Amino acid sequence: MSDEEEPVPGNKPLRLPKKAAKVKNKAPAQLQITAEQLLREAKERELELIPLPPRTKITDPDELAEFQRRKRKEFEDGIRKNRMQIANWIKYGKWEESIGEIQRSRSVFERALDVDHRSITIWLQYAEMEMRYGNFS
After folding, report:
1. Which residues does the UniProt record annotate as the domain Pre-mRNA-splicing factor Syf1-like N-terminal HAT-repeats (predicted)?
2. Residue 100: inside a domain, yes or no?
3. Would you say 86 and 119 are in contact if contact means Cβ atoms under 8 Å apart?
4. CATH number at residue 73
5. What is the reported pTM?
């Protein structure tokens, strides 16, 4: 086998060119595109492709319990993937607070502090939550 051939599993050897093709026109293009434009266009296309999830209508307590269980699992999975991502902890704690589960919210913030006890963001969010519910101890 020569230097320009590489074996490809299940196929014939792949033949690579000896030299890269030469660029004929090295002059800059008339219209220059910046990295910012490329990123903006990519973001716009991403938004076009991903449809928003349908709004969930909850009609009974069983559906509510199932929805809350699913959301908690999503938050826990996100935390498990990256424990040091403070934003995940904050979102989880605020979500628990928003559904009226103050004890669970407190637990989430305390677990977050076990991970990073120096995070000012966690301390502030935790303290604000406690102040909203009148627990100053």
Report:
1. 74-131
2. yes
3. yes
4. 1.25.40
5. 0.61
